[in-house]
Design brief:
Growth Hormone, Chain: A; globular; 0% strand; mainly alpha; 15 helices; 80% helix; 367 residues
C-alpha cells in the first residue's frame, strides 16, 4: 500500500535495507527470543521487497512480454535459493553458522545502495500520480531516444488513482471475485512450496538415501523452478493465460503425487522433484506475473502484496502441516499424496479466474 503512495523505488530500497540489517543482526542473536525478533524483521523487509520488484518489472515491460519479464526476474529467487543452500554448507563447515547470515546480510545492503543509485522509478507510477514530469521525460528519452512528444503522455481513466483506501479497491470495479480466487491460488501454492522446501530433504533421507544426495535432489526443485519460469513465460503472455496457469498447477499436483511413488530410485526422484519445481515454482512466478497484470497501476503493489501476504499464511501452515503428517506416522507416499491436494484446489481457482478473464475479454470486444 505504501508503494502505491510514495513509489516503488523508495520502498524497494528501504525494504532491502531492512532485510539486510535483519539478516546481519541474526548472526548476533544470543537467544531464541532475540532470533525470532531478528527473523521477523528480516521477513518484513523481504515481504515488502518482493511485491514491489514484481510491480516495477511489470510496469517497465512491454505488454506482450510482461509475464515473461516478471517470471525471468523471479528466476533470481529460485537460483538464489538453490545456490544459497550449496554455499551455506561450505560457509558453515569453514566459518560457522553466523557466516551465512553475515554474507546474506551484506549482499542485500550492497544491492540497496546500487538500486538507490541506478534503479529508475516506475514511469507508470509517476504518470498516475502526476509527479515529476521532467523525470518521466528523462527516463523515456533514455529508453527511446528517437521518439518524441513525451510531454503529451497521459494515462487512461482506469489508471487514475482513487481516494478510497487501497485495500478496498481490490474488491471494487468487479475485482472482488478475481481477488479472492488469486488469494486461494497463492495460499495453496505457497503452502505446497514451503512444505516441499522444508520437508523434502528429511523425507528423502528417511527412506534410506544419504543426506548429501537428498540435498542435491532437493536443490533440483529450485532448479526446476528457474527452468520453468524461463520456459513458461511466453505461454503466460498469450490469451487464456489463466487456463495455462491451471494446467501448470495440475502438472504440479501430478508430479508431487509421483514423488511419493518414486521410492528409493535416485534418478526417478531427481526427475520428479525437478518436474515438481517447474509446476510449483513456475506456477508461482506465473501467478505473480498475472496478478501484476490484472490490477491497475494505482493499486498494483497493493494487489500483489496482499496476494503474497495471504500466500505467506500458507507458507507458515505448509511446514507445520508436513510435520504433523510425519508425526502421525504416515508413509512417505501418503504424505505426498496429501501434498498433491493444494495444487488441485489451485487448479480449480485458476479455472475460475480463466472464466472471468474470458468474460471480460468478450465484453471488451463488444465495446
Amino acid at each position: 500500500m505504501i508503494a502505491d503512495r510514495i513509489g516503488r523505488k523508495p520502498v524497494l530500497v528501504g525494504c532491502s535495507l531492512v532485510f539486510g540489517i535483519g539478516t546481519l543482526l541474526t548472526a548476533a542473536a544470543t537467544s531464541l527470543d532475540i532470533l525470532f525478533i531478528y527473523r521477523f524483521i528480516t521477513g518484513l523487509g523481504l515481504g515488502g521487497a518482493m511485491p514491489n520488484a514484481i510491480a516495477l518489472t511489470s510496469e517497465y515491460a512491454p505488454r506482450k512480454y510482461r509475464a515473461t519479464a516478471v517470471m525471468t526476474m523471479f528466476t533470481g529467487f529460485s537460483i538464489g535459493a538453490a545456490a544459497g543452500g550449496l554455499v551455506a554448507a561450505r560457509l558453515i563447515s569453514r566459518w560457522g553458522w553466523q557466516s551465512v547470515f553475515i554474507v546474506g546480510g551484506v549482499l542485500p545492503l550492497i544491492m540497496a545502495f546500487v538500486a538507490l543509485a541506478l534503479l529508475p522509478e516506475s514511469i507508470r507510477f509517476l504518470l498516475v500520480r502526476g509527479r515529476d514530469r521532467e523525470r518521466v521525460v528523462h527516463y523515456l528519452s533514455r529508453i527511446a531516444p528517437n521518439h518524441g512528444a513525451f510531454d503529451e503522455l497521459t494515462v487512461g481513466a482506469e489508471e487514475q488513482p482513487s481516494r478510497a483506501f487501497a485495500v478496498t479497491q481490490l474488491f471494487t470495479d468487479r475485482r472482488a471475485s478475481m481477488t479472492l480466487l488469486l488469494w486461494v491460488m497463492f495460499f495453496m501454492n505457497l503452502l505446497d512450496l514451503y512444505f516441499i522446501n522444508s520437508w523434502l530433504p528429511t523425507v528423502i533421507n528417511d527412506i534410506g538415501i544419504r543426506v548429501e544426495t537428498a540435498i542435491i535432489i532437493t536443490t533440483m526443485f529450485q532448479v526446476g523452478g528457474a527452468v520453468g519460469a524461463l520456459l513458461l513465460g511466453r505461454f503466460f503472455d498469450r490469451e487464456g493465460s489463466f487456463k495455462f496457469l491451471a494446467a501448470t498447477y495440475l502438472g504440479a499436483a501430478a508430479t508431487i503425487f509421483l514423488i511419493g511413488e518414486a521410492g528409493v530410485s535416485v534418478p526417478l526422484l531427481t526427475l520428479t522433484v525437478f518436474a515438481a519445481g517447474i509446476g510449483v515454482i513456475g506456477g508461482q512466478t506465473g501467478s505473480n506475473a498475472l496478478t501484476a497484470e490484472f490490477y491497475p497501476t494505482a493499486i498494483r503493489s497493493t494487489g500483489v502484496g496482499w496476494a503474497l501476504g495471504i500466500g505467506r499464511i500458507g507458507s507458515i501452515i505448509g511446514p507445520t502441516l508436513g510435520g504433523t503428517l510425519l508425526a502421525m506416522g504416515g508413509q512417505t507416499r501418503h504424505v505426498f499424496w496429501a501434498a498433491a491436494i493444494p495444487p488441485l484446489i489451485a487448479t480449480v481457482a485458476a479455472l475460475g479466474a480463466a472464466f472471468i478473464q474470458k468474460g471480460r475479454r468478450n465484453e471488451n470486444r463488444h465495446l
